[in-house]
Amino acid sequence: MNMTKNYLRITPxxxxxxxxxxxxxxxxxxxxxxxxxxxxxxxxxxxxxxxxEVAGAHPATIGVVRGQVVVGLSSGDLNALATDPxxxxxxxxxFAAAIVQEANGGTTVAGTMLAARQAxxxxxxxxxxxxxxxxxxFDISTDLQALGDTPMIVVCAGAKAILDLPATxxxxxxxxxxxxxxxTDEFPAFYSRSSGLPVSQRLDTPEAIAxxxxxxxxxxxxxxxxxxxxxxxxxxxxxxxxEPIIVQAxxxxxxxxxxxxxxxxFLLQRLGEISQRRTTEANLTLLRHNARLAAAIAxxxxxxxxxxxxx
Length: 311
Ligand code: PSU
Ligand code: MN
Prior knowledge:
Elements: E1 8-10, H1 12-19, E2 24-27, H2 30-35, H3 40-54, E3 58-65, E4 68-71, H4 75-83, E5 88-90, H5 95-100, E6 105-107, H6 109-119, E7 123-125, H7 142-149, E8 153-156, H8 165-174, E9 179-182, E10 201-203, H9 206-218, E11 225-228, H10 239-255, H11 263-274, H12 278-303
Helix pairs in contact: 3-4, 3-12, 6-7, 9-12, 10-11
The structure holds pseudouridine-5'-monophosphate (PSU) and manganese (II) ion.
């Protein structure tokens, strides 16, 4: 059932935190390798870990280094992934290829969830999950499958606005994934706080989220609890401003015939160029914001002793 230790390496600091039952937050690395340019990507990775530590929890960034799946990347590892021009994007099906070819890779939401689960980590922070792409209804991110079959609390700022949000929400419903609005009734749209679409449940505190997750899993559900945390107001790009840029970038992706893994990184990069980095700045802010909330949820989760669980 577990990846053998040859494939999965939990670094000592992270292993100790797991063994001591301390609050942990997993972090993905595709945002480092394919989501942001160097050196912002490296700084962001360090900032997210710092936010989690300041909040009183332990970060464990996950990625693939020379064919080994690492839970709790060192700063040297982060630097290697942030600067490797050959670095791969690793979703669930890509692990084995990276392992046998001893490659470096950034793990997506789906890939990170797989490794975090093997390590026994319950809370995970990212920027925006993948979803159903616009105008390409068969391009559905594996992130949605992973959310459907991995019991984990995943904190995000909604699905990336480049996606078909109504279709993405329908898919999450099909996969039995509760979509929690953190202090909001609306599904946030990544760069914008609102989408006009409802969440399945609003919750206003980390403690309520921890209690919700316990109840969800106590009944035998295997799906994730998706917590959506709207981007802070000061960093928000209103929907009517970002939407035309997204339409343009999606059109360019179609014109270039981009497919598969290349689509999301292209769109994020083009949005940054067209908006003169405004979308990139918003992305950085929401990532740090999500790290903070995830740390609070990890602490709340740990404070609810399993012995006091009423199943
Ligand atoms: N959020 C960001 N930047 C990113 C991603 C999310 O702010 O780069 C990544 C995540 O790792 C997510 C992936 O899992 O994009 C989705 O890619 P795809 O649509 O190809 O499944
Ligand atoms: Mn895709």
